[in-house]
Write a structure and sequence with these properties.
Blueprint lengths: L2 E4 L9 E9 L9 E5 L2 E9 L2 E11 L20 H13 L6 E7 L4 E3 L12 H4 L3 E9 L2 E3 L1 H14 L8 H15 L3 E9 L16 E8 L9 E5 L7 H4 L7 H12 L4 E3 L14 E5 L4 E5 L8 H15 L5 E5 L3 H5 L3 E6 L3 E8 L2 E2 L7 H16 L5 E3 L3
Helix pairs in contact: 7-9
The structure holds pyridoxal-5'-phosphate.
The site of pyridoxal-5'-phosphate has 12 residues, from α7.
GO biological process, one term: carboxylic acid biosynthetic process
Keywords: Aminotransferase, Pyridoxal phosphate, Transferase
Pfam families: Aminotran_4
Length: about 400
Amino acid sequence: MATLSSFLHKPISDSSFNAKILCSTFDSSLVRPNLAFQGVGFRSFRLRIKGKSFQDTWVVQNSDQTGVSNECTNISDVPLLSSSEVIERLKAYRVNRKGKQNYLAMYSSVFGGITTDPATMIIPMDDHMVHRGHGVFDTAAIMDGYLYELDQHIDRFLSSASMAKISLPFEREHIRSILIQTVSASKCRQGSLRYWLSVGPGDFQLSPSGCHQSSLYAIVIQDLTPPDHKGIKVVTSTIPIKSPQFATMKNVNYLPNVLSKMEAEEKGGFAAIWLDDDGYIAEGPNMNVAFVSKENELLMPYFDKILSGCTAKRVLALADGLVKKGILAGIRVGNVTVEEGKRAKEMMLIGSGILVRPVLQWDEQVIGEGKEGPVALALLDLILGDMKTGPVSVRVPVPY
Ligand SMILES: Cc1ncc(COP(=O)(O)O)c(C=O)c1O
């Protein structure tokens, strides 16, 4: 007969009960079926069979318990790993991942340096950006080895950090230098740089008072796909818009934006357009929106309740050239009604990810002639030209 001795000194429950053995790696017929002991759940036992000692884990169930699944759960399915095994598994995980983006370098102020191994591009679980969303982020495109509008994006990044009450781990110039060095280490000439400021790692509380140091992370993503100028369809978002306090800061709480994008995709569209609380046109989930009115004016909604898009602001500056050439009659930033938007000659989405993308249909309404309009295409050319040959104020060279 086999004898059992439990390794658990402290039972989970105090009353003893007749336990039924549901599952073990040993043949439980060797053991008396109704053993009385305290507690419930997994138990590790020393098993003696014919004088030999074995250790085994058993799933035991109180005879009163009906809620516990009868399915066998073998805890040896979940291995306890050493640090080097974790790294190995992270590398193997990346080999099998579905994503198409290449991450060429990551900086983390937690480890105080840059890594080019995607398996090690990780952040601590107790970072409050992970479990509380207490973080902000921004981007900048990398074009031909230059960072486009880096300083404009850093300005917005720091303003977002201030609104989220995240103190800076370093001075602005040091942050800027880290970002450029990360791109340099990545050797990436085409793609994007993304960076985050978090209130930092510390604990799993809500208050950041246990976080002793805010953290900076940055990643370089290669993207060799040429900009797409093909017109797309948009829908009106039914996901509520973020309140101005949260929409004007680029914080990591993008669930409404994600759901809005998913809603558009479910309806065969590219993006969903938010209206503000007064019913005026606001923005898309990660882009601004603009129109060309019947009077040939470029219309863009005010930025006071939405994200102040760096690309949209640059488009406004570049569009001056189209006014001078007589292609546009003027430029107006203000409230834009849905009616005005839907009967516009042209509609377009604007952002650092898509640059300028013509919109051919909004919900059931075909926009203009249902073709990519001349102003949207001219603005896309202007932005691309600016990215390639613009002034030093918008092009920061990366020293490779
Ligand atoms: C909500 C939202 N609006 C607008 C934009 C466009 O901003 P930018 O041109 O600076 O990329 C973004 C960019 O990600 C965004 O997330």
